[in-house]
């Protein structure tokens, strides 16, 4: 099973600032990585797939990068609606796995 | 518009089984797969498995190999997930989610539309 490790666990950021979230895979997953956003009481929402392709309707302030084992989700200028938990998920193996999540909170 | 509508909350005794349904609309059901993901209270997301609505092929997380059955009914565009031998550790919200790409494509395991979730509570 591929283990996905996200860091930090919690990120405190002021509105308008940049947020950088990391996700590391225990083995190479090429670019087979997705990012999801989840707000309290809601289902997850797809943000990024293929490591860097924004899903339909996702604002340009969200960007993804990386390949192999190290990946980054960047939110260029945090808006109030961006405070949430973010999960990465690998789909390189048909045994999919999620990271533990990074909570982005208001500083 | 694409929608996934899930069945209502369930309360089950330990040792029982639960079957959650996920009715899809707004797209061609058999062109996509369905993933099942659960989330225990206050915890992260846990992938359970995926089923092709095209041919019924399934992938299941090793943790659930012996306890979970995923099926589809193409006549009603509905996916089902049955979990057996429930324990208190199975108390969670269970989500279904549509595969982003066609069932034979590179992004078939990426989940682009999600159901609202079904709360399953296991308690004596």
Identify the notable features of this structure and list them briefly.
heterodimer, A: 107 residues, mainly beta, 7-stranded mixed β-sheet, 11 strands, 50% strand, B: 124 residues, 4-stranded antiparallel β-sheet
Low-confidence stretches of chain A: none
Topology of chain B as a string of helices (H) and strands (E): EEEEEEEEEEE
Shape of chain A: globular
- Chain-averaged pLDDT of chain B: 96
Radius of gyration over C-alpha positions of chain B, nearest whole angstrom: 14 Å
Unreliable parts of chain B: none
Strand content of chain B: over 45%
Order of helices and strands of chain A: EEEEEEEEEEE
What's the count of strands of chain A?
11
Radius of gyration of chain A: 13 Å
For this structure, the quaternary state is heterodimer
| Main beta-sheet strand count, sense and barrel state of chain A | 7 strands, mixed
Estimated share of beta-strand residues of chain A: over 45%
The biggest sheet of chain B, with number of strands, parallel, antiparallel or mixed sense and barrel status, is: 7 strands, mixed
Helix run count of chain A: 0
The number of E-state strands of chain B comes to 11
Helix content of chain A: under 10%
Assign an overall shape of chain B: globular
Structural class of chain B: mainly beta
Helix count of chain B equals 0
Short description:
Chain A has strands spanning 4-7, 10-13, 19-25, 33-38, 45-49, 53-54, 62-67, 70-75, 85-90, 97-98, 102-106. By secondary structure, chain A is mainly beta.
If you had to describe this structure to a student in words, what would you say it looks like?
The complex is a heterodimer of chains A (107) and B (124). Chain A is mostly beta strands and 107 residues long. In chain A, 0% of the residues lie in helices and 50% in strands. Chain A is built from no helices and eleven strands. In chain A, a hairpin with a 6-residue loop joins strand 4 (33-38) and strand 5 (45-49). The mean pLDDT of chain A is 97. In chain B, 0% of the residues lie in helices and 49% in strands. Chain B is built from no helices and eleven strands. In chain B, the strands form two sheets. In chain B, strands 2, 4, 5, 6, 9, 10 and 11 form a seven-stranded mixed beta sheet that branches. In chain B, a hairpin with a 5-residue loop joins strand 5 and strand 6 (58-60). The chains are: A mainly beta (107), B mainly beta (124).
